Amino acid sequence: MAKKTASLADQAYQTIKNKILDLTYAPGMALTEAMLTEELGMSRSPVRSAIQMLQAEGLLISDYYRSIRVKEITDKDIHDIYQLRELLEGAAFQLIFTSGRYEEYSFRIEEKVVRMCACASDPYAWEVADTDMHMEILGILDNERINRIYENNLSEQIRIGQYSVRHGMRIPQTNERLKKMIRFMRKGDCENAYAILREDHFMLGRDSALRGQYSKDPEDCK
Description:
The chain has helices at 2-21, 33-40, 44-57, 75-98, 102-118, 123-138, 144-152, 154-166, 171-186, 190-213, and strands at residues 30-31, 60-62, 68-70. It is mostly helical. It is built from ten helices and three strands; from the N terminus they run αβααββααααααα.
């Protein structure tokens, strides 16, 4: 019986987390055990366990009165995430070229971009595939500590990435630009390849997400 309850708690956790990450449960949205129990068709015990796990991750927060809401996304969160990405991935991208492994990595990154293209009609799936592409770039560093830092911020990257897609970043154009980036990589052209990554995935991504902060109409998160 305990194993079954644990399994239900895991299911509840994953379902609620996915809805937070794809913005179905928007930043700042109030949630209740009763609401989640009804939506998931479960008893309160596994839902309560799922809430506790998501609170531990920082995706759900509770106030003095024990009301539950989805963690807000602030301007500082957006700036911090994109600064982190640019610092880590910028160094990794340069190393791909200085180590002479740019052709190898062009094929590895291309594999991730193919998946992104296949997910183009589903912004959430595309954003998950996009984070995999960025993790591939970091792979050149072969540094587990850096990977953990990146993975610890993965949920916020996906949520903020959804803001970018909804407020300026166009998936088809971004996919085409990434294909162009790969062609530059094959030629060993670090400057032009990195310019695409920086402009599309750091600068445009950050600016689009910030625009989302100022148009928080409820319809935005449906």
